[in-house]
């Protein structure tokens, strides 16, 4: 006998384990990031800046899928810690440039241990981690493309 509610049973939802996993993994980052005086979202922004060195708020928002209303207070906080500077563009005053400071750049040496610490609690092989990352990025791409 068919159960018409089977499609909405919690056990059949991909979104639920994805949500739980994201929540728990992010929570596990907290003690490691406390040592760096960063929240998880600040850590993501800093990782982006360690790669880019400088960017605009718009570029960062597009790369990290964060809107300006989320980024603005976060960037102000990172600036108050001395990790970044925020300056208006000389050519377009609507554009805000973000630049990593020496202090912010030096923080990446302390952050090197975070991925290793997280590997211990996640418990995937490097191959499994790469495969999972690819699948999650595929989901993100598909979701983004379905909104267009």
If you had to describe this structure to a student in words, what would you say it looks like?
There is one protein chain. The protein is mainly α and 148 residues long. Helix 1 packs across helix 6. It contains 7 helices and 3 strands. The protein has a domain of 97 residues: Winged helix-like DNA-binding domain superfamily/Winged helix DNA-binding domain (Arc Repressor Mutant, subunit A, Orthogonal Bundle). It has a 3-stranded antiparallel sheet. It is globular and about 65 Å long. Strand 2 and strand 3 form a beta hairpin.
Number of strand elements? 3
Rg computed from alpha carbons, rounded to a whole number of angstroms: 19 Å
> What is the fold named in CATH at topology level of the domain at 14-110?
Arc Repressor Mutant, subunit A
Average of pLDDT:
93
The CATH top-level class label of the domain at 14-110: Mainly Alpha
Helix content range of the residues, please? Answer: 55-70%
Low-confidence stretches: none
Largest sheet geometry: 3 strands, antiparallel
């Amino acid at each position: 006998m068919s159960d018409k509610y089977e499609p909405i049973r919690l056990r059949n939802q991909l979104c639920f384990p994805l949500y739980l996993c994201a929540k728990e993994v992010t929570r596990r980052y907290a003690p490691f990031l406390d040592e760096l005086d960063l929240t998880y979202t600040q850590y993501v922004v800093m990782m982006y800046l360690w790669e880019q060195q400088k960017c605009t708020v718009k570029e960062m928002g597009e790369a990290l899928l964060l809107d300006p209303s989320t980024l603005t207070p976060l960037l102000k906080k990172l600036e108050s810690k001395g990790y970044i500077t925020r300056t208006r563009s000389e050519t377009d005053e609507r554009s805000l440039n973000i630049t990593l400071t020496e202090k912010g750049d030096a923080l990446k040496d302390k952050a090197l241990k975070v991925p290793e610490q997280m590997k211990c609690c996640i418990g995937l092989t490097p191959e499994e981690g790469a495969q999972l990352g690819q699948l999650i990025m595929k989901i993100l791409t598909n979701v983004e493309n379905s909104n267009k």
